[in-house]
């Protein structure tokens, strides 16, 4: 019996620009039915307001409720910035919610000590860092986190200039690598750079989509039991 996975998006980046999540689900959960729910303005609102307002959290709750009404078996949140809002949304739906960066945060907490969190949108830095710190605390590990913003790179990517985006992110990663022992890419939109950044920095570089979707696949399998 195939499962229905609802993906919640806060921009069209994974719907039209970077189909990485769809590709991974097709590979790892091939019989799943995937439906998409997009609020393409809520991330812009969070960036503008420099945080998640009650209204922004409510918008994610509405997306989750729409996904549940559509018969989703599980909800996958594709946006790291809105992670805390999904904790709020989870309280108003019965459908399980999986965050794209949950598994990555668990791995970083287990394996990293000085962790560099690299982002191209300022709003992902806090939620990703907080998630890693929380997971580290749960297992009794002490980690230090250095946050680094690659300002403007996300806008460059959305304008279609991948090469310039990649150059900007690589430059920041190389500098960050001087003071950390692991780099966490806090947005899935940087995913395809993980391999080259690992080669250039010689550090472990974690990116959320594959480990996030592998974790989703595990949760989907548990639903069938």
Describe the structure.
There is one protein chain. The chain is α/β, with parallel strands linked by helices. It has 2 domains: 4-100 and 210-223, 3-Layer(aba) Sandwich (Rossmann fold); 102-207, Rossmann fold, CATH 3.40.50. It has 11 helices and 8 strands. The chain has helices at residues 13-17, 20-28, 42-49, 54-69, 83-90, 102-111, 125-138, 153-158, 162-176, 194-201, 208-223, and strands spanning 4-9, 33-38, 74-77, 97-99, 114-119, 144-149, 182-185, 205-207. The strands form 2 sheets. The chain has a 4-stranded parallel sheet, with helices on both faces. The chain has a 4-stranded parallel sheet with strand order 6-5-7-8, with helices on both faces. Helix 5 links the parallel strand 3 (74-77) and strand 4 (97-99). Helix 2 (20-28) crosses helix 11 and helix 4 packs across helix 5. The protein is globular, with a radius of gyration of 17 Å. The mean pLDDT is 92.
Short note summarizing the structure:
Belongs to the HyuE racemase family. The protein is 51% helix and 17% strand.
Helix/strand order: EHHEHHEHEHEHEHHEHEH
Q: What is the helix fraction of residues, given as a range?
A: 40-55%
Write down the domain tally: 2
Q: List low-pLDDT spans.
A: none
Radius of gyration: 17 Å
The pLDDT mean sits at: 92
The strands making up the biggest β-sheet line up spatially as 2-1-3-4
Which geometry do the CA atoms define?
Answer: globular
CATH fold group of the largest domain? Rossmann fold
Q: What fraction of the residues are assigned to beta strands by DSSP?
A: 15-25%
Largest sheet: 4 strands, parallel
Specify the CATH architecture of the largest domain.
3-Layer(aba) Sandwich
How far is the first residue's CA from the last residue's CA? 11 Å
Number of strands: 8
Q: Helix- and strand-based class?
A: alpha/beta
- What is the number of helical segments per DSSP (H or I, 4+ residues)? 11
Output the CATH class name of the largest domain: Alpha Beta
Family: Belongs to the HyuE racemase family.
GO molecular function: amino-acid racemase activity
Pfam family, one: Asp_Glu_race
Protein name: Asp/Glu/Hydantoin racemase
